[in-house]
Amino acid sequence: MEVKVLDISGKETGAKVQLSEGIFGIEPNDHAIYLDVKQYLANQRQGTHKAKQRNEIAGSTRKLYKQKGTGGARAGNIKSPLFNGGGRVFGPQPRDYSFKLNKKLKELARKSALTYKVKDNSLVVLEDFAFDTPKTKNFVSLLNALNFEGTKTLVVLPEGNKNVYLASKNIQKAKVVTADELNTYDVLNAVKLVLTTGSVKTLEEALAK
């Protein structure tokens, strides 16, 4: 499929880019997307949660009162989970939430996410660009030219560009990544996806294998 290429002022350049049907026009696989997003979010978890068990509580081990004859339930020491300040039963312990997925499944998920953006008319292709200075107003002007101001926007560059990255850093709903960093979650989390001619080529080379 052909998509018109725009410049950073939002005007058509007259050029068109051919998007691969095998990457931007497949039958989306929702389950692959679910697994890939689940893995991404799981990998973000620190897993440092911790609750003290009764053997880790600081306190006396003295038996509180005699075993029988009180009319109440028997009790051991003050560190019992039954008392305020006691240890917690089966509380959270530090753990690693990450898990692995097959490479082909992750590629299928990314292709499916990109296909959804094309179907929703949420994908725009710009000619390759760079900023001379890392000024926020340059990136704001770009978003305004595309009518994306106030919209969650993901800009994908073919390679790292420090000025473009820094210019976007203070904009809450904008994110800049390189093509090799692109993941399914970021694509779906953005309302608008902005690719450059260079990043289209990089993605097609990476996902066409």
Automatic annotation (TrEMBL):
Annotated segments matching region Disordered? 46-77
A single GO molecular-function term is: rRNA binding
Single GO cellular component term: ribonucleoprotein complex
Pfam family, any one: Ribosomal_L4
GO terms (BP aspect): translation
Top-rank lineage group of the source organism: Bacteria
Cited Gene3D superfamilies: 3.40.1370.10
Q: Is Ribosomal protein among the key words of this record? A: yes
Its keywords, alphabetically, are:
Ribonucleoprotein, Ribosomal protein, RNA-binding, rRNA-binding
**Reported function:** Forms part of the polypeptide exit tunnel.
Q: Which family does the UniProt entry place this protein in?
A: Belongs to the universal ribosomal protein uL4 family.
What interactions and quaternary structure are annotated?
Part of the 50S ribosomal subunit.
Name of this protein: Large ribosomal subunit protein uL4
The species is: Pelobium manganitolerans
Primary gene name: rplD
